[in-house]
Amino acid sequence: MISLREQIEESVKYIRKHTKMRTEIGIILGTGLGGLVKEIRKEIVLDYDEIPYFPISTVESHHGKLIFGTLAGKKVVAMQGRFHYYEGYSMQQVTYPVRVMSYKTGLGVKTLLISNAAGGMNPEFRRSDLMIITDHINLQGDNPLIGPNDDELGSRFPDMSEPYSKSLIALADKIAREKKIKVQHGVFVAVQGPNLETKAEYRFLRNIGADAVGMSTVPEDIVAIHMGMRVLGISIITDECFPDTLQPVSVDEIIKVANKAEPKLTKIMKELVRRL
Ligand code: HPA
Question: Is the pTM of this model over 0.85?
Fold first, then answer.
């Protein structure tokens, strides 16, 4: 069987036939949060389907794309469309693109910016707030690092004392202050989904120390840390998950709120990229 490293090399070889761009910044955009992509001056766009060893998309209608270009004067690679665990992908598949992006074996990425849509459980939070992720809890019941470890990619037991970069958080805070955009801070918990949580589950997740809940980001963060990258994660709070007053919510509403709040996220991310 071909090793993970060989797979990554094959993927990178294919990408390198199309672009020699060395990108130090990687971007993964969450549900309803594609606005930043519009700001990228594109050099080349590859379909995930054409890249060897990239996971095959399960949703026919929506082909993911890997975008290479310039944002605020910096060379970036962005994932338009991410893989979720609840779609049936393995954790290794969900995180494969992060490995391909990385500076160690791949395209050159040292800084990874991740966004997602999340439910707010901290009672101070309101719909359409931004939350800078300061830490996380993995409740997905699986881990992308399970299996043989390639020591050249990263440590068998990676340290997780700084899963989200303190210096990137400080920079994002500074930019938010300058731009007068209110930001919250908090712990993000990742669950499997795809259903939203029950009241009892929200109560539980709040009690174990989480401020927001979602179905992504944690696997990508773990792999990024494994490969020595630094990460900034920002959640858009799309629904208020307070157990005692919980209202039904649909995915359409979640996407609507994400779309509405997204310009704030785009402003911060773009300025952050400029200053990196
Ligand atoms: N739970 C899980 N994932 C989510 C939620 C939620 O309430 N809102 C947006 N993504």
Answer: yes
